[in-house]
Design a protein that fits this description.
It holds the Pfam family Gelsolin. By secondary structure, this protein is an alpha/beta fold. Helix content is about 20%, strand content about 30%. The strands form five sheets. The chain has a ten-stranded mixed β-sheet, covered by helices on one side. An eight-stranded mixed β-sheet has the order 2-3-4-15-14-13-11-12, with helices on one face. It has a seven-stranded mixed β-sheet with strand order 1-5-7-6-8-9-10, sandwiched between helices. Strand 21 and strand 22 (about 415-425) form a beta hairpin. It starts with 15 loop residues before the first strand and ends in an 11-residue tail after the last helix. Residues about 330-350 and about 580-585 have low confidence and may be disordered.
């Protein structure tokens, strides 16, 4: 903003901000549903109140021009949102001064420069101009001494590899965009090994006296704080602004009424303003003002992020704070319209498994590692040890046990491994712990290359179903051990779901009439066919029926049951008979986070618009695809974070604002051994990168 007017910034200077100014950033991205537009106004720490007000006004005007389709953000220097930081891959540079003091965005080939930049951050890098003095330095960060024709990168002794490489990317970016590629870069990784560069630094900064300071860790919001979401209704009454709390987590979409405006407070970490379609123009205009007023009333820091959202154009970040988000009357595929709030029945789509290798994105979408044609070995945990299971009974799992399933398949001519840890609902804590410990031992035997998947009874992933070729039977309780302590029930009822060998399982349900469902096939001493089941489902049910019992089973159609059928179930009772609709969970965008648990607080940093480059060797990263949680473990990650990885994933699910299912499968992936259903979430994955 120059003299209260919007002036375009030259593209070469994108990512460089004067501390005395305000900026407006427009970001447009093509999506499967058109385009997503984000408008940010950025406030420098030395900018005037007038400029800040003008910036907010321009953003509102731009939003009107864009017919209310943009998501608006207020960004404060040093506290930018992860979305904003994702636009500047090489980092953000803060410069002293501004337009008012005669500063212009740097012209290329300017060499009469002498400045010191303090580079911070590992995933999101920012560089702040600091005083040219040894007092500005510390042991844990990267510093760039910029002398025009020479750039010296000084790495603190406690810097990580990732921080050093991000610092170098920033130095190269300055050389190429501001110096036309004509500057030299020197690196000091260890002062003793770089006497010549140290000499130049001493000439500029003088001799160093005293010890270097320790780095000050960034104050970041932990996941517990972010999980504390509260929704407020905001309205005016007799010229007074009224803010009334409506609900706390888990929030549901129906709380948002189209004629009102709401503030969603994410634990003081971020404030969202949602503007209903039918709310008044005055209310819409006042969104930012109200959010700033709310921040002041709550005593939050003035740097708190604000995001203003329009009804129908919600950002992915906002939707993920709700338990379930459905697009109203969204037509999917061939013109089917799904309504909300019905019981979910996932349409079983047949897909060609031979395409998985050629199209890893399909592997990710279908959650399939391969075509399930590999080898299986199964062990039961007995007396805390691994006991091999008879191959004739592969696919039969009992709720009182824990099992290890090792799946081996070939890729590019060499074996790859997936190790499933299946935890029965009634297994003891000791057995569940022993299952995890035995999994580590089994993984070691296979060169630490296995992908480990925690499977909770009832939440079996697609690939797990596929490897048992339609013969997966889950018994509610009991055990498959030779000496069973409890007698088996006389009457058992199984619900069978699936249309082919790749997606079928039979699950034991309480032997009562209320367990029936018209959409499925059930197995008693009869095969009960619900009105809504398909021919494919009936065929698969016949196959499963033979596994459960070899006796002949009569087929009964719904509505033609003999009296003894109801007797076996303890009498007739109401059951689910409505046609099942597919719940349309809006395109959940996968999210990548860096996990850190070192400080005793669980902190996650999101990487927006992620790619393979964002996986650093010294990281533990979490990829959330909603139906599964992947943990990617870098080769050089520290032991503490590696050991805490599974606990971190459980913590993530527990503290997720949307109230997530704690039984979501957790998949441990090691650097260099990534399966297709992981790499498929990344654009242009390079298998030879490491």
């Amino acid at each position: 903003l120059q003299n209260m007017k919007m002036v375009p910034v030259p593209e070469k200077a994108y990512g460089t901000f004067f501390e005395g100014d305000c900026y407006i950033i427009l970001h447009t991205k093509r999506t499967s549903r058109g385009s997503a537009v984000d408008l940010h106004y950025w406030i420098g720490k030395d900018s005037s109140q007038d400029e800040q007000g003008a910036a907010a006004l321009y953003v509102t005007q731009l939003d009107n021009e864009l017919r209310g389709n943009a998501v608006q953000h207020r960004e404060v220097q040093g506290h930018e949102s992860e979305t904003f930081q994702s636009y500047f891959r090489n980092g953000i540079i803060y410069k002293k001064g501004g337009v008012a003091s005669g500063f212009k965005h740097v012209e290329t080939n300017m060499y009469n420069i002498k400045r010191l930049l303090h580079v911070k951050g590992k995933k999101h890098v920012s560089a702040t101009e600091v005083a040219l003095s040894w007092d500005s330095f510390n042991k844990g960060d990267v510093f760039l001494l910029d002398l025009g024709k020479v750039l010296i990168q000084w790495n603190g002794p406690n810097c990580s590899i990732a921080e050093k490489s991000r610092g170098l990317a920033l130095a190269r970016s300055i050389r190429d965009s501001e110096r036309g590629g004509r500057a030299q870069i020197g690196i000091i990784d260890n002062e003793k090994d770089s006497p010549d560069l140290m000499q130049i630094m001493k000439m500029v900064l003088g001799e160093r006296r005293g010890e270097l300071r320790d780095a000050i860790p960034d104050a970041k919001a932990d996941e517990l704080q972010k999980a504390n979401v509260r929704l407020y209704h905001v309205y005016e009454k007799d010229n007074d602004l009224v803010v009334q709390e409506v609900a706390t987590r888990p929030l549901t979409q129906d709380l948002l009424q189209h004629e009102d405006c709401y503030i969603l407070d994410q634990g003081g970490f971020k404030i969202y303003v949602w503007r209903g379609k039918a709310s008044s123009p005055e209310e819409k205009k006042a969104a930012f003002t109200r959010a700033v007023g709310f921040i002041q009333a709550k005593g939050y820091p003035s740097s708190t992020n604000i995001e203003v959202i329009n009804d129908g154009a919600e950002s992915a970040m906002f939707k993920q704070l709700f338990q379930r988000w459905t697009e109203k009357d969204e037509t999917q595929g061939l013109g089917k319209v799904y309504t909300t709030g019905k019981i979910a029945k996932v349409e079983q789509v047949k897909f060609d498994t031979t395409q998985l290798h050629a199209r890893p994105e399909l592997a990710a979408e279908q959650r399939m590692v391969d075509d399930a044609s590999g080898e299986i070995e199964v062990w039961r945990i007995e007396d805390l040890q691994m006991q091999p299971v008879n191959p004739k009974t592969y696919g039969q799992f009992y709720g009182g046990d824990c099992y290890l399933v090792l799946y081996t398949y070939l890729r590019s001519g060499r074996p790859h491994y997936v190790l499933y840890m299946w935890q029965g609902r009634h297994a003891s804590v000791d057995e569940i712990t022993a299952c995890a410990l035995n999994a580590i031992q089994l993984d070691k035997k296979h060169g630490d290359e296995a992908v480990q998947v925690r499977v909770t009874m009832g939440k079996e992933p697609t690939h797990f179903l596929a490897i048992f070729k339609g013969k997966l039977v889950i018994y509610e309780g009991g055990t498959s051990r030779a000496q069973k302590s409890t007698p088996e029930p006389a009457i058992r009822l199984f619900q069978v779901r699936g249309t082919d060998e790749m997606n079928t399982k039979a699950t034991e349900v309480p032997a009562r009439a209320s367990s029936l469902n018209s959409n499925d096939v059930f197995l008693l001493c009869y095969l009960w066919w619900g009105k809504g089941c398909s021919g494919d489902e009936r065929e698969m049910a016949k196959m499963v029926a033979d596994i459960v019992s070899k006796r002949d089973k009569h087929t009964i159609l719904e509505g033609q049951e003999p009296a003894e059928f109801w007797e076996a179930l303890g009498g007739k009772a109401p059951y689910a008979s409505e046609k099942r609709f597919q719940e349309q969970i809006t395109h959940y965008q996968p999210r990548l986070f860096e996990c850190s648990n070192q400080t005793g607080r669980f902190i996650m940093t999101e990487v927006v618009g992620f790619c393979q480059e964002d996986l650093d060797e010294d990281d533990v990263m979490l990829l959330d695809t909603w139906e599964e949680i992947f943990l990617w473990v870098g080769k050089a990650s520290n032991t503490h974070e590696r050991n805490e990885a599974i606990a971190s994933a459980k913590e993530y699910l527990k503290t997720h604002p949307a109230g997530r299912n704690l039984a979501t499968p957790i998949i441990l992936v090691k650097q260099g051994y990534e399966p297709l259903n992981f790499t498929g979430w990344f654009n242009a994955w390079d298998p030879y990168k490491w």
